[in-house]
Structure formats: structure tokens, C-alpha cells
Amino acid sequence: MDESGNAGAPRKLKFYKLFFPFLILLALGGVGYTDINPARSHLYWLAMVPVFAGACLLLEWLQEHNRGLHWAAVLRAQLMLWLSLLVGVFLVYVLLHSGRLDNENAGLIVLLLLAMTVFAAGLQLGPLVMLLGGFLALSLVLAAYIESYVWLIMLGFVVGIGVLSYLYSRRNA
Where would you find the membrane-spanning parts of this chain (predicted)? Predict the structure, then answer.
């Protein structure tokens, strides 16, 4: 139990230390995949939806479980958020298959929807999740405009996130 009486703070911090770098690596891998194979990148980002949703749901459970709130209400709110993302992705696929959108742009739009949803989840879950949503949005911009420098910029951003994560963990330790 920490000084504030919150027994779940160490579990939440451990979760951040384990999953946050993992999610960043998945995002970096997606940016690389979008750069290498833009025609199929939308499939990668679609596969990331349940991964990011699961991570956010687990983090939400760790927070709400320790606040004594009803898990059903928390789960309903999070599921609605992530279900809205899946509906958005479905609509992107409708546009893709109707010929109104090409494969390369479909991947970027799915990444945009994921970035917005992760950022929105961060409004409830905390600044690191919002930062992850911002990182995904930056990844979108980099994948769309700055292909030749994307890896160098991403490396700098990952180092910055690592420093922020370290400072956050020291502040809450």
C-alpha cells in the first residue's frame, strides 16, 4: 500500500512499465509497416485495435478496482469507446471496398482513428495514455509526410517518452 492508501498503485505502475514500452514498439512497428507496405497497413492497424483496447481496459480495471467503483459501469464506458472505433474502422473498410479510398490512405485513417480513441481513453486513464495517443497521431503525420526522416524522429520521440516514463515512475514511487 502506498502513502495515499492506494494498494493498486504499484500494480498500475508495473503495468505502465511493462505495457507502455510494448505499445510504443507496436506503434513504431506499425509506422514502419505503413512505410514499407502501405497497401496492407490498414490490416496491421486493425489488428492493433484489440491490443490497445485490452491494454486500456486492463489499466482502467486497475484504477477503478481500487476506487471501489462498479466494474460493470467502467467496462460499459470503455467498451462503448472501443466499439465506436471498430465502427469507424468498419466504415473505412466500406469506403475502401467501394473504391472511394485506396489501401494506403485506409491505413492512415485507421491509424488516425486509433490515435484519437487512445487519446480519448487517456482522458480517463491519465497523461501517459494521452501521450500514447499523441504519439500515434505524430506517427500518422510522420508516416504521411516525412518518410525519409521517420525513423530518426521516432527514435528521438521514444527516448523522450522513455525519459517521461522514468520521471513519472519516480514521481509515483
Answer: 18-36, 43-62, 74-96, 108-137, 149-168
pLDDT at 12: 59
The residue with cell 467496462 is: 75
Per-residue pLDDT reduced to its tens digit, 31-49? 777 777 777 777 888 888 8
> Under a CB-based contact definition with an 8 Å cutoff, are residues 153 and 146 in contact?
yes
Q: Which domain holds residue 168?
A: 9-172
Q: How far apart are CA 63 and CA 43, in angstroms?
A: 31
Quote the number of domains for the chain.
1
Euclidean distance between CA atoms 147 and 81, whole angstroms: 31
Helix or strand run (H / E) with residue 68: none
Question: Which cell numbers hold the place of 171?
Answer: 514521481
For residue 2, tell me if it sits in a domain. no
Q: Are 49 and 85 in contact (CB under 8 A)?
A: yes
For residues 74, 79, 80, 81, the Cα torsion angle rounded to the nearest 10 degrees is 90
